[in-house]
Structure formats: C-alpha cells, structure tokens
Amino acid sequence: xxxxxxxxxxxxxxxxxxxxxxxxxxxxxxxxxxxxxxxxxxxxxxxxxxxxxxxxxxxxxxxxxxxxxxxxxxxxxxxxxxxxxxxxxxxxxxxxxxxxxxxxxxxxxxxxxxxxxxxxxxxxxxxxxxxxxxxxxxxxxxxxxxxxxxxxxxxxxxxxxxxxxxxxxxxxxxxxxxxxxxxxxxxxxxxxxxxxxxxxxxxxxxxxxxxxxxxxxxxxxxxxxxxxxxxxxxx
Length: 235
Fold this sequence. Notes:
By secondary structure, this protein is α+β, with helices and mostly antiparallel strands. The protein has helices spanning about 1-15, 70-75, 120-135, 195-200, 205-220, and strands at about 15, 30-40, 40-45, 50-55, 65, 85-90, 95, 140-145, 150, 165, 175-185, 225-235. The chain folds into 2 domains: about 1-105 and about 135-185 and about 225-235, Immunoglobulin-like (Sandwich); about 190-220, no CATH class.
C-alpha cells in the first residue's frame, strides 16, 4: 500500500493536469470526456500516427482509473490494454478496431549494491521495497478529481506531448482516414451462485457480496468515445 500511494503521487505529478480555475462540472455523478489529439493530420504512406489522449473528469464525483498490471496511459500498449481501444475508417473501407502490436519481452538484470554495514535483514527489507515499487510502476491506480485531466505519457520528455500509436494497422494507402479512441473498461459481472455459496462458507454473507457488486457497478464508467480526427495520407 505504501508503494501504491507513492506511485500514485508520482503519476499525478507526471500525468495529471489540475482543475482549471473557475471550472464547473458538466454533469452530476461520474463522467469522462476523451480528447484525441494527433501531432499532425497529414502523413506519408507507412508513417505512424503520433497522438496524445486526454481524459478529463467532467462530473462532480471522483473517478478511479485502474490499469493493472500494465497501463496503456503509460506504455501505449494496445495489445495489453484493459479498456482503451482505437478505431479507424480507411478510405472506402469499413470501420475496424486497430489491433495492438505485440510487445517484445525483455529480461533486465541489474546488480544491486547495499552499504557494507547493512545487516542481512536490512538488505532483505530494502529488496522487498524495490520489488513492491517494480510491481506498481507499470500499472496505474489513480483518483481523478472533478475537472482534472489525465494525459498519455509521451515517448520522449516534455515539451513533447505525443507518442507513436503501437498498432499493427498500416497507413499504406493514400486518402482520408477517420480515427477515434474509446475507453470502455470491462463491466463488472455479478457473482455466480457457486461463488456466493463458497464465500458464504468463508463467513461473507450474500448481502455483503451483492452490496460489493452493486458498488463496483456504480463505479463502472461505461463506454466513453473521443472526438473523431481526420488524417490524410499523401500519395
């Protein structure tokens, strides 16, 4: 939990823009506005789309965004995304989902040096803290307050705001492409009868289980679509 709190503080500092002065909610309850921003609207054949995605809380309640173990907001990975999708309508074609590109697994080995006067217990505790930080750094668990805006992480440091869209889709034909982003986290499923009975045996009443499900359903954000952007691919 300490690692999670520390990571949220870091993520908010890096990725969240504060509520503008004088801002007012656009709806009661939970609500999101998704804005897709292309770096440029004219591409060469084979060139990748570079984008920034902004997610603003337009309601008057705090919205919890959870992406574990891998965050699309941080990594740009559509392949491992749990809610973020992109759709494209190519020239003369039908609208289709843009599939993510597979990530290459990399094993990183790093030697850790501790002070010579540390005991084995101190070293073990420090190593556990490092493992906890590693587990939380790739995901995102963040409370987005009313009026705040969460932005995708760019692929190079600011002032750059954009990153390549990691998709297998190719802009290989001249013409007009229409693109939109969607954030649609999975809808919570009600507990099945077998699960209810098993948890009752463990001392968790059915009423508490259903209340937990209803709470998760209330927090569910549904389907949120961005603006549609038009991209021209030059001959």
